[in-house]
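Dear support,

Our group has been running a series of protein-ligand predictions, and this particular one with flavin-adenine dinucleotide is the one our PI (initials K.S.) wants archived with full inputs and outputs. We had some confusion internally about which version of the output was final, so please treat the block below as the authoritative record. The input we submitted was:
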Amino acid sequence: LKLAERGYEVVLIEANRIGWGASGRNGGQIIGGIGHTPERFKKSLVRQGINTIYQMGIEARDIIKERVETYGIDCDLKWGYCDVAFKAAAYERFCRVA
Ligand SMILES: Cc1cc2nc3c(=O)[nH]c(=O)nc-3n(C[C@H](O)[C@H](O)[C@H](O)COP(=O)(O)OP(=O)(O)OC[C@H]3O[C@@H](n4cnc5c(N)ncnc54)[C@H](O)[C@@H]3O)c2cc1C
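Confirmed final output from the archive:
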């Protein structure tokens, strides 16, 4: 889409049908995370890498908002989500990153 917006002629090559993969069957939640807390990768990514991941998550949300507006995508977009701690350790982790 980014390339097409810049005037490139873009062709999508898909083994099945467009949207067949994870993109066409995900939960549709825009949380901006990577499925784990990035802190888990602290050793290899160091602080800068972790901050970059958080920043990318924020940018991803902005890109979706912009595309929904630009292309008038009727997708019942709603903002806001809730993180829930089921265990004391998870609650403590939330407190650390809050
Ligand atoms: C059950 C589920 C729920 C999820 N829920 C969420 C969610 O709520 N929020 C969220 O942000 N993320 C969610 N995700 C993750 C998210 O959907 C994926 O990270 C994202 O869709 C990946 O996009 P992609 O374009 O990299 O891959 P895909 O959307 O999987 O696209 C890859 C495509 O490449 C095609 N392909 C593969 N090999 C070839 C080949 N050799 N030639 C041609 N085509 C090929 C496949 O057929 C596929 O259609 C979820 C994922 C799953 C599986």
